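Final report, section 2: Outcomes. Of the targets proposed, Enoyl-CoA hydratase is the one most frequently requested by collaborating groups, and we therefore present its record in full.
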Amino acid sequence: MATVSGTVHMKYVGESDNIALFILDRPDKANAYHNAMICQFAEQLAAAVANPSIRAGVVTGAGDRVFCAGADISSFANRSYQDGLNLLSRQLFDNWANAPWPTVAAIQGPAIAGGLELALASDLRICSPSSWFSLPEIDLGLIPAAGGIRRLSKLVNEARAKAMILFGQKVDSATALEWGLVSQISDRVLEDGIHLAEAAARRDPLATRLAKMALQSVNTSLGDASVEAVAQALLYNRKTQVE
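The predicted structure is given below as tokens.
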């Protein structure tokens, strides 16, 4: 059996090596992730959270062309409704969103489907001028079920979220900045992302953690994740019944 390409690297960077940098490394497939990469990312994130010296996190994609094209669609055919209920990417992105320190998505090029959902789970997003953003899951008979619906509507308002999710609108970098989807456009995305993380890391860690928890508590709806899970489970099950 041929080995599937792709991995996730974690390394400590920054002026005090207290920034956890995660790199989705599958540039030949637009950094699209598969389950093994999600599991690897989850293990590395858990290790970083357990490391008391870490003060911030950054996620990026390998190369300079694409941040992440989301899940590898070649794996969709074999997914069951149980996979929809227990979507690995949803669990990972929720853990990333709930990391005890600030997180930054350094987005070079497009962030599509699950790639955008990962970016949305970050506390701050910066992108390159060539970046664009899309949630095309409905074209595949699915929904953005790894947090995209929950987070996008709260970030850019309901009308804009509907334009992207229901009508398939692609958003370029300038529009993303105008909408507040990203906070900065940069020609040096990774460097600036690390600098932002360093700025956060220099602040009081306990106050930062408590402030992040307070921000997350605003307009929180505990039911949203369950709706995502059930909807995706039904859609996965439909695919298996049709095939």
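The mean pLDDT is 90.
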